[in-house]
Specification:
The chain is α+β, with helices and mostly antiparallel strands. It contains ten helices and 17 strands. Helix 5 runs parallel beside helix 9. The protein binds adenosine monophosphate (AMP) and magnesium ion.
Length: 343
């Protein structure tokens, strides 16, 4: 089984950059770093300035707080309670309510390629508890009958209702959302500039203390090192790919991004897709949806929706990058011969 800690690698470049910069000149902006294992991944928090340590503590407790609300496995979480509700309305926190609302809007935007009710399918494949297996076709067919975003009713006043059988999984937007919320917590603690890196999700906060853009490395799915870098401003950069979680059974690799139409791991021309946008949950949800839809779909969606950019590495080892990132992306040493198309 091929499995990489995407977070560590995709952020390596940004870490290298910031370490290098601190050795040069940050003026007053000292660099502080913290780590926390949460959301099934190693999360790195970097904060600049004299309130850095307070900021990191605030981000860590925000991550823990939201993980408890959004986990599919913690029996006290909002999501667990919704999934066990047997058709009854459930009162949740305002954050969970807000994220479900957001998830529904991303699902509508992507015509169901991002589908927050995919949990019964994800469970069947064992991606929730790592008891991986290939389900029978009939199991998938039965589980699919409960997968539909329209089954979610938002009743107002933080009350949510789903019919029995329908279950939520916000795993494809949670890290993006938690990145944004942790940045707000850091800001309240007096930090203006920092980086929160959560398993393939990077949240950039404020300005790089060198008053330059941030440079974020995009991980190569096979090699486990950054192969390209992108210049970015405050906002989120999120990568999705089959390499992030998968298992092999009888020589076939099965991965964790499900095509909600079929109930099987999505098969598109994409090896990995990175989305750059302001809003973390949108970046996260879109990276999953674009992986499902493929590169043609990404270009189509980008035509009608101007608030995100993308970097796609295809299975043919070509790079397709949205026009607005021209001049902001660069291949790194050893990868110069990857063909780039701007679309
Ligand atoms: P990401 O790593 O952000 O692409 O999200 C993948 C995770 O979201 C999986 O581990 C599942 O828990 C869940 N998931 C899988 N397929 C989908 C889908 N099509 N829409 C929404 N969530 C999904
Ligand atoms: Mg995602």
């Amino acid at each position: 089984m091929k499995k990489h800690l995407n977070i560590t690698v995709s952020l390596m470049l940004i870490i290298l950059c910031t370490v290098f910069a601190s050795a040069c000149d940050y003026g007053e902006a000292s660099q502080h770093r913290g780590e926390i294992y949460a959301l099934d991944t190693l999360i790195t928090v970097t904060a600049y300035g004299e309130k850095g340590d307070e900021g990191i503590a605030a981000a860590k407790s925000e991550i823990r707080r939201l993980e408890k609300l959004l986990s599919v496995t913690d029996e006290n979480s909002d999501i667990f309670r919704i999934n066990a509700s047997k058709g009854e309305a459930v009162e949740v926190s305002s954050e969970t309510y807000e994220l479900i609302e957001k998830a529904i809007s991303i699902s509508v935007l992507t015509e169901g390629k991002f589908e927050p009710t995919v949990f019964p399918i994800v469970k069947l494949w064992g991606f929730t508890d790592k008891n991986y297996r290939v389900p029978e076709e009939i199991e998938i067919k039965n589980a699919l009958s409960n997968v539909n975003c329209e089954n979610i009713t938002l009743l107002g006043e933080n009350r949510v209702k789903v019919p029995e059988g329908t279950q939520l999984d916000l795993g494809a937007v949670a890290k993006g959302y938690i990145g944004d919320m942790s940045a707000i917590a850091m800001e309240k603690a007096g930090v203006e500039s920092g980086i929160i890196s959560l398993g393939g999700n990077v949240k950039l906060m404020g300005e790089n203390p060198q008053n330059d853009s941030w440079n974020v490395g995009v991980n190569h799915p096979e090699d486990g090192v950054a192969f390209c870098k992108v210049k970015a401003e405050e906002g989120s950069i999120v990568t999705s790919g089959a390499y992030q979680r998968n298992f092999v059974f009888q020589g076939v690799t099965y991965h964790h991004i499900i095509n909600p139409e079929t109930g099987y791991p999505a098969e598109s021309d994409i090896e990995s897709v990175t989305v750059v946008t302001q809003d973390g949950s949108l970046a996260d949800g879109l990276s999953t949806a674009l992986y499902v839809g493929g590169s043609e779909y990404a270009a189509e969606l980008r035509k009608s929706q101007s608030d995100f950019e993308y970097i796609i590495l295809t299975k043919n080892n070509e790079l397709i990058i949205s026009q607005a990132l021209k001049g902001k992306t660069e291949l790194l040493e050893g990868y110069e011969n990857i063909k780039i198309t701007y679309r």
